[in-house]
Structure formats: structure tokens, C-alpha cells
Amino acid sequence: MQSRGFMPSRHRAKAVAVTRSKQSDRTMRAVAMALLALAFVVAQAVAAFAKPESLAPLAEKISPSVVNITTSTVVEGRTGPRGIVPEGSPFEDFFREFQDRNRDGEGPRPRRSSALGSGFVISEDGFVVTNNHVIDGADEITIEFFSGDELKATVVGTDPNTDIALLKVEADGPLPFVRFGDSNSARVGDWVIAMGNPLGQGFSVSAGIVSARNRALSGTYDDYIQTDAAINRGNSGGPLFNMDGDVIGVNTAILSPNGGSIGIGFSMASNVVTRVVDQLKEYGETRRGWLGVRIQDVSEDVADAMGLEKAAGALITDVPDGPAKDAGLMTGDVIMSFDGVEVEDTRGLVRQVGNSPVGATVRVTVMREGKSQTFKVTLGRREDANGAEPGESDEPEQEKEPETKDLLGLTLAPLTDSLREELGVDGDTVGLAVTAVDEASEAYEKGLRTGDIITEAGQQQVASISDLEARVKAARDAGRKSLLLLVRRAGDPRFVALSLEE
To answer: Which residues, 6+ apart, have CB-to-CB distance to 220 below 8 Å?
Structure first.
């Protein structure tokens, strides 16, 4: 028998192994904790390196290139006292005498009005970028540099579409300047610095982050960087810098209920500005590509009505005389790609076309009646484009249908000479006039109104009510849930998809 308390050697070896295993686990945990602590310290050091304690060194480096801009404009004005006084006042005779003398004399004298803004130098030979609205209509432009020196500037060219202006000053020597950076590389959350002349108080610096990208305000070619760096009146035309000291935006607008900064400012992206500046420098004007189509976004219901796999591309609503018409593009085509780049929506297409060289031949891929087709289009110049003039037609007048009909929530009547005259449309316009809209219908919800003209249904022309009924039947037979209508109002076309569910 084995006595109690006696442990065989094999059991002792097992106990020792368990003890060593526990010690090893504790050691590994300690090492892991040490590594975590080290990683935290390293991360803190990296963060401290990435975000400097002071922006002063960067501000000192780039501030000499930032300028204040003062403009002077001669406007019609009034001289001397002018006001309203109570009847019987002792001043009544004085004001009447002055007004009579002013009325009988030369009239109001011109006066000089001043405005303030900001800008920045982009070359040592004196090219200066600012906003167009800062210098628009100015008779005299004065550039004040960070050193306090002042020079008169001349306008090289302007682009109201992007609100950019290029100025030129003549200096005795090379000027300090800054370079444009790549605005596409700016990320939401990146640090930025805004510089300028806010509220006419002189040179000022504010810092913040990129709050959002690709903002659109009201322009065709808008691509704004939104920032919470303080931007106020007078900052217009000033630069928005990244932490490398490169200009990634031109401060242009603020969103504010009271006219002051609330942390929502907008800077035109540098990748837009550089193209404009290059053209203004070379030509004194912009030269944007022109495709020659009217377009609208493809909504989900429009995509369903056209049998498209997804709601993407740009739907052509009209093709006036121009490059697209010459190449064979048609109303109802959906532009899926332009010059090898997929088209997501109309805004992207407009910007891409505008950035393309005038005279370039590009491939445009469209979906037409469910099939993909590619056309070669030689782009025109947007600035030279005019609206297509209405053409003459030798087609005979369509037969009148004496009655109207209610269909798809609309009361419709075929166009007659009297209706054309009443609606102010050309004599060769063919389609159905909307004479009433059921306010409880989907058609009313989607914006159709009395006076609209339906010229196509299911991407085919309709000249009579029977044509529209045939298109409705064909769509239902094909299993479509909606029918695509081409609707014109005051000459402007748009596509509307209406549900066919009864």
C-alpha cells in the first residue's frame, strides 16, 4: 500500500508541468500588456506628429502669397441731404428747395462704391486668383500684399459659372506664390486652413476640417469642399490650404441665417479651378466641351419603365441641332458612358463634358430600346452654343378627335391649331394636350399640370388618344409596371413614368 501524502513521480512531474504552464501564461499576458502599452504610446506620438501643436510655421510660410483685394466702382448716386420730414417741420422748406434745385440741375452725381475680398498669388510673375463676384463690374482693382505693399491689377479673364477670376499685377521682382494641390485627395476629416480678409478686418487665419466633399450649390459645374474653418464676408476668393501648404479650394460661399459664419463654408475644389485658370491664362475665357443634349436623371420608376437594370445614366430629353444630333443620338437614349467613363447621373456627365477639350472626338455609349450602341461625337464649344430654333414642317395637320379622354389621371385632348395657339407652341408640334389633372392621381404628384403636352409614350410619338391607348396596352402586355411619357412644358422636355396598375 502507498502511504497518504506520498505522490508518485509521474504525478509530481504532471504537477510541475501545470505550474510551469500557469507561469508561462502569466508571462505572456504581461508581455501582451506591455506591447499594448507601447502601441498606445506610439499611437499618441504619431498623432502628436500628425497634428502639430501650432499652425504658426505653416501660416508663416504661406501667408505672403495671400492678398487683400479692394475694388472701386462708379455708380449712380445722390449728393447732399435727402430724407423725409414731417409736414409743417421747419426743415420742410429747406428739403423742398434742395430737391427742386437738384431736379432742375444736372441731377444726381455719380459716386464711388468700394468692395473687399481676398485672393492668392499663383505665380512669381503676378497672376492672382479670386472670385468673380469680388471684382465683377469693378472699375479699379487694388491688390494689397501681406507686407502692406499695394499694386493695381488688371482682369485677365473671368468665369461666372465657377465664380473664378484671374487677375494680373506687375511687380518689380518675383512674388511669393503658392501651388494648387489635388482636391480629390482631400478626405473628410482632414485639417485645412482658410486665409483671407474677413469683414474687411485685414489678414486672418482660421482652421478646421473638411466637413464634406462634392457639394453642389446652384451652378452647373459646382464641386465644392465644405469646411467648418471660419469663412465670413471678405474671405471670398481666398485660399483653402491643406497641411502641406497647397491650395485645395477657393473660398466662395457660406451658409448662414444671419450673414456670419456658423461653420458651414464652401470652397470651389482646386481640380475645377485649375482647369478654369489654365484656360483663362491661355485664352482669356473658358472653352468647355459641348455635347448638345438636354438630359435628366434616371429615376427608379423611369428605369423600370425603360427596362433598365439599374437607375443610372443620363436620359436624353431633347436633341437640338449640334454635335449629338450630327452623331445620331436621339431623344430617349440613355447615356451610359462618356469617353470611356461610366455615367452615374446628369451632374457627373455635365462636368465631364465641360472638362473635355473643344473639338475632341469621344465615344458615347447609350441604351436605345434595350440595346447598347456606341457613337462617335465631335464636341463643340459650350460658350458658342445657342438653343435650337424651331423648324418648319410640311407634315399635314393631324386629324382632329372631337372628344377628350381621361387616362392615367389625365384629361387629354389631341393638339389642334387653337390649342397650339393657346399653349404657345409651334405649329408643327404633335402630341396630346393635358386639359385637366386629377389632384389625387400619381400624375399630379409627379408634377403634371394643365397645359403640359405629351409628345411620346413608351419612347414612341403619340399624335392621338388612340396612339396613347395603344402604348398603354403594349406596355401592359409586355409586363411593364409603368409607362414612360415625354412631357413638354413651355418647350422644356422631361420624362415622367406613370404606373399602369389599375
So the answer is: 161, 350, 354
Helix locations, 307-449, DSSP H? 323-327, 346-354, 417-423, 442-445
Give the DSSP per-residue string, 371-402: EEEEEEEE-EEGGG--PPPPPP--PPPPPP-S
Question: Is 236 a residue of the active site?
Answer: yes
Q: Name the catalytic one among 63, 133, 256, 304.
A: 133
Could you read off the pLDDT tens digit of each residue along the chain, which spans 502 residues?
444 455 555 555 554 454 555 566 666 666 666 666 665 555 555 444 455 678 999 999 999 999 999 998 876 655 444 444 445 555 555 556 555 555 555 555 666 667 789 999 999 999 999 999 999 888 899 999 988 899 999 999 999 889 999 999 999 999 999 999 999 999 999 999 999 988 777 788 999 999 999 887 766 777 899 999 998 888 899 999 999 999 999 999 887 666 677 888 999 999 999 999 999 999 999 999 999 999 988 988 888 888 888 889 999 988 989 999 999 999 999 999 999 999 998 888 988 998 899 999 999 999 998 899 999 999 999 888 754 333 333 333 344 444 788 889 999 998 887 788 788 877 778 889 999 999 989 999 988 999 899 988 887 888 888 889 888 888 887 788 888 888 888 767 888 889 887 6
* Strand duo 453-457 + 432-437: pairing: antiparallel
CA-angle at 91, arms to 85 and 95, nearest 5°: 75
On whether the pTM is more than 0.70, the answer is no
- Catalytic residue, candidates 65, 118, 206, 236: 236
Q: Which of 163, 223, 318, 467 is catalytic?
A: 163
Q: How far does Cα 447 stand from its chain's mean position?
A: 24
Domains identified in the chain and CATH numbers: 63-77+93-169 (2.40.10.10), 183-283 (2.40.10.10), 290-384 (2.30.42.10), 405-499 (2.30.42.10)
